[in-house]
C-alpha cells in the first residue's frame, strides 16, 4: 500500500492533457527519464490509458482529477459536525474494505473513511472480483459503529444503496434505480455496488465496514461479466468532480447510518419503493441451488425482498435477483 507519491506528482504534471517529454517530466520531478518511464509503465499496468509517442512524449487519454483528502474534507463535506475521525486517501491498496476490516479496533468509535485510486484485489459481493483500474472509479470504504445489534440492522445495505443514489443525484440528475439488495442501476446496467461487512456481537454494539464502488470513467475495452455503465457514459463531459462526489458519498452514507441507528430501517421503505428497479416485474431469485420465479413485490420492514409466486407473497433475506425475460 502506498500513499501519494511519484505517480501522483507525475499525473499532476500530465493532467492538463498535453504531451510532455520524458526529459521534461524527469526534470520537474527531480528523477531520471528511466524513472519516469518506469512510473508510466506501472500506471499503464494499473489500468490508466497513457499514450507514449516517440519524439513527443507522454499524454493522458483524459485529464484526471486525483483524490485529495483536504479537498474532500474542506471543500466538499459541508456538514462539519460529521465527527469523521479520519479520511485516508491511498494511491494503491489491495482492497479498501480489507484495509479497514484488518484494522478494526475495539477503541474505534467515530466513523473513518478510506479511498483509493487503485485496488489490486478489489472485492465484490459473493466473493466476486471488483474491477478497479487507476482513478477510473470511486473506491470508498467507511467504518461505522452502530449502537444497535446486527439483528436489528437487516436493512443496512439497502439504506446505503439509497444513500449512494441520493449522493449521485445531488450532483447529476439522471435515472438511477436500486436493485435489491444494493446494486446501483441505470437503465438495466450496473453503475455501482455496495459491500457491507460486519463485525462484533450480533446482539449488541456492531461495527461495520461498508465499501462502495462507483464506475466513473472506465478505460475503453474494460471487460466485466455483466451489463455495466459508467458515469461518463451517462453524462458525457458534465462529470462531477471526483473529490466532490467522494465528499457527497461520505456525507450521505454517514447520514443514512445515523438515521438507521436512531430510527431503524422503516424510515427507508418509502424511498426504496420509489427507486426500486424490479418492483412488479418478473424476477428469478437464485437462493443456493434453489430458484424462485415470481413477481417482485417490493421489500418488507426488515429489508427482505418480497416475491409473489403461485398467488402467495413470501419474503427472502438473501439471494441473487435477476429480471426474467418474458417467454
Ligand atoms: C458489488 O459486488 O456490487 C459490491 C462492490 C463493492 C466494491 C467496493 S470498491 C471499495 C470497496 N473495496 C472493495 O474491495 N470492495 C468495495
Characterization of the model:
One of its GO terms (biological process) is regulation of DNA-templated transcription. Residues 22-41 bind DNA. Biotin binds at residues 95-97, 119, 123-125, 190. One of its GO terms (cellular component) is cytoplasm. The chain folds into 3 domains: 6-60, Arc Repressor Mutant, subunit A (Orthogonal Bundle); 69-273, Bira Bifunctional Protein, Domain 2 (BirA Bifunctional Protein, domain 2); 278-325, Roll (SH3 type barrels), CATH 2.30.30.100. The chain is of the alpha+beta class and 327 residues long. The model has no long low-confidence stretch (mean pLDDT 91). Helix 4 (69-76) packs across helix 8. The protein has 9 helices and 14 strands. A 7-stranded mixed β-sheet has the order 3-4-5-9-8-7-6, with helices on both faces. Strands 13-12-11-10-14 form a 5-stranded antiparallel β-sheet. Bound molecules: biotin. Biotin binds next to helix 5, strand 5, strand 8 and strand 9.
Amino acid at each position: 500500500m502506498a500513499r501519494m507519491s511519484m505517480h501522483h506528482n507525475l499525473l499532476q504534471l500530465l493532467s492538463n492533457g498535453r504531451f510532455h517529454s520524458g526529459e521534461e517530466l524527469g526534470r520537474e520531478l527531480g528523477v531520471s527519464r528511466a524513472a519516469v518511464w518506469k512510473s508510466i509503465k506501472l500506471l499503464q499496468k494499473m489500468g490508466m490509458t497513457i499514450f507514449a509517442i516517440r519524439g513527443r512524449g507522454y499524454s493522458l487519454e483524459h485529464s484526471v482529477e486525483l483524490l485529495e483528502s483536504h479537498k474532500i474534507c474542506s471543500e466538499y463535506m459541508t456538514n462539519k459536525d460529521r465527527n469523521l475521525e479520519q479520511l485516508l486517501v491511498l494511491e494503491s491498496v489491495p482492497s479498501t474494505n480489507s484495509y479497514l476490516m484488518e484494522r478494526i479496533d475495539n477503541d474505534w468509535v467515530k466513523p473513518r473513511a478510506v479511498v483509493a485510486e487503485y485496488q489490486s484485489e478489489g472485492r465484490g459481493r459473493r466473493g466476486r472480483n471488483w474491477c478497479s483500474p487507476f482513478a477510473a472509479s470511486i473506491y470508498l470504504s467507511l467504518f461505522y459503529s452502530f449502537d444497535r445489534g446486527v439483528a436489528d440492522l437487516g436493512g443496512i445495505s439497502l439504506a446505503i444503496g439509497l444513500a449512494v443514489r441520493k449522493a449521485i443525484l445531488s450532483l447529476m440528475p439522471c435515472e438511477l434505480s436500486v436493485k435489491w439488495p444494493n446494486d446501483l442501476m441505470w437503465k438495466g446496467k450496473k453503475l455501482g455496488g455496495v459491500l457491507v461487512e460486519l463485525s462484533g456481537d450480533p446482539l449488541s454494539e456492531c461495527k461495520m465496514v461498508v465499501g462502495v464502488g462507483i464506475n466513473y470513467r472506465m478505460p475503453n475495452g474494460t471487460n466485466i461479466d455483466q451489463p455495466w455503465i459508467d458515469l461518463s457514459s451517462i453524462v458525457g463531459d458534465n462529470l462531477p468532480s471526483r473529490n466532490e462526489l467522494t465528499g457527497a458519498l461520505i456525507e450521505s452514507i454517514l447520514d443514512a447510518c445515523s438515521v438507521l441507528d436512531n430510527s431503524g430501517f422503516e424510515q427507508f421503505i418509502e424511498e426504496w419503493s420509489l427507486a426500486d428497479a424490479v418492483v412488479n416485474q418478473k424476477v428469478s431469485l437464485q437462493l443456493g441451488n434453489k430458484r424462485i420465479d415470481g413477481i417482485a413485490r417490493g421489500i418488507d420492514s426488515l429489508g427482505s425482498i418480497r416475491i409473489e409466486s403461485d398467488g402467495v407473497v413470501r419474503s427472502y433475506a438473501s439471494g441473487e435477483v435477476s429480471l426474467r425475460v418474458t417467454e
